[in-house]
Amino acid sequence: MKLLSRTTVYAVRAMLYIASSDHQQQYVPVRKIAGDLQISFHFLAKILNQLTQHNLLTSYRGPNGGIALARSAAEITLMDIVAAMEGEDFFEGCLLQLPNCGDEKPCPMHAYWGQIRDQLKTVFQSTSLEELGRKIKEEGLRLVHCPES
Fold this sequence. Notes:
By secondary structure, the protein is mainly α. The protein has one domain (6-138): Arc Repressor Mutant, subunit A, CATH 1.10.10. The protein contains six helices and two strands, in the order H-H-H-E-E-H-H-H. It has a two-stranded antiparallel ribbon with strand order 1-2. The chain is elongated and about 55 Å long.
């Protein structure tokens, strides 16, 4: 199941990469992020620009330029990133995208989706970038591709 678009997944991965302890408090070149995460430079640049416009990142031009978090990883939630990429109304609307679905004329999935949507919204709002990064490290997961030896 794909709940989030590829663009949003890349945004989360890039934010986690920037928030990693190796890169905190410094500007990370976009080419480095793109190369390490194996994301097209131009596609990633558009994503990072959108995150910058939503005040989640700051950018610095020049030879030592790059991208940095606009505030601490503890202050940025998964919901902040999803809302920046998908829109504030991401969790609204019909799961089946039926135009007339609503509380007065619910579709067959309306009640189920409402409960699940509310739970997901709560998780996304309460999960910080810092917490997500810590859990990824604890589980031994990697953000970057490591070729097999």
